[in-house]
Amino acid sequence: MSMLHTVDVDGLLTLMNPADDPILERMEDQANREGFPTVGHEVGAFFRLCARLMDAESVFEFGSGFGYSAYWMAPAIGPAGQIVLTEVDEDELDQARAYFEQGGYADRAVFERGDALEVIDRYDGPFDLVHLDHENERYLDGFETVREKVSQGGVIVADNVLHSGEAMSPADLRAVLDGARTPDEGSSLAGIAEYYTHVTNDPEFETSVIPVGEGIFASVRT
Ligand SMILES: C[S@@+](CC[C@H](N)C(=O)[O-])C[C@H]1O[C@@H](n2cnc3c(N)ncnc32)[C@H](O)[C@@H]1O
């Protein structure tokens, strides 16, 4: 359950999310069984909504795991669209490929094994939607490597920005941004605070905080 809203809101979000895709259910079962940190269904549904609202055709993801968040976006980009999944772990990426094949979305997906910050160099874009879900401390590097490749009106969404297990809470982040606390160098908290300060000062992007799941920053290229 998200720490960012009440039990009732959480229940309603669950009711409103499409549960009719057996592949998504299988992926959720796997995540629960293995304790794998996917974005969760409410963030997945939000990403799909973003992709539909902007008629996204091209998506790039930094850190795809076994494909859960990418799978949520896949139906929204249509058969002519392309979603690039990146993952350092070969086994995770193989599982993502298998899930996409079972769901009938493999034809619109590219599976890239390796460091997303290196993979992105091989792509020109433009990307309508970019998802940052690799190491928190490297979100800013991810943003900088991809910002010029984002289409006008395109969005970069960064996940886990308000909560990160024991490592960070919204109160921690506020304290750092208000100057009341200095985070440990190299920590998630330091990385997210640095990211937030940077993207909110980028004149080409407009950034909003979305309190779903563990929190999202959505930065639109204006
Ligand atoms: C929090 S998990 C999220 C996976 C997926 N986005 C989801 O919601 O199910 C982050 C994943 O990113 C991968 N990862 C971490 N750093 C990476 C990098 N630099 N490039 C590619 N993948 C990375 C990890 O191996 C892990 O599987």
Automatic annotation (TrEMBL):
Keyword Metal-binding attached: no
GO biological process: methylation
Highest taxon of source: Archaea
Listed GO MF terms: methyltransferase activity
EC number: 2.1.1.-
Alphabetically ordered keywords of this record: Methyltransferase, S-adenosyl-L-methionine, Transferase
Gene3D superfamilies reported in the protein's UniProt record: Vaccinia Virus protein VP39 (3.40.50.150)
PANTHER family: PUTATIVE (AFU_ORTHOLOGUE AFUA_6G01830)-RELATED (PTHR43167)
Name of the protein in question: O-methyltransferase
Protein source organism: Saliphagus infecundisoli
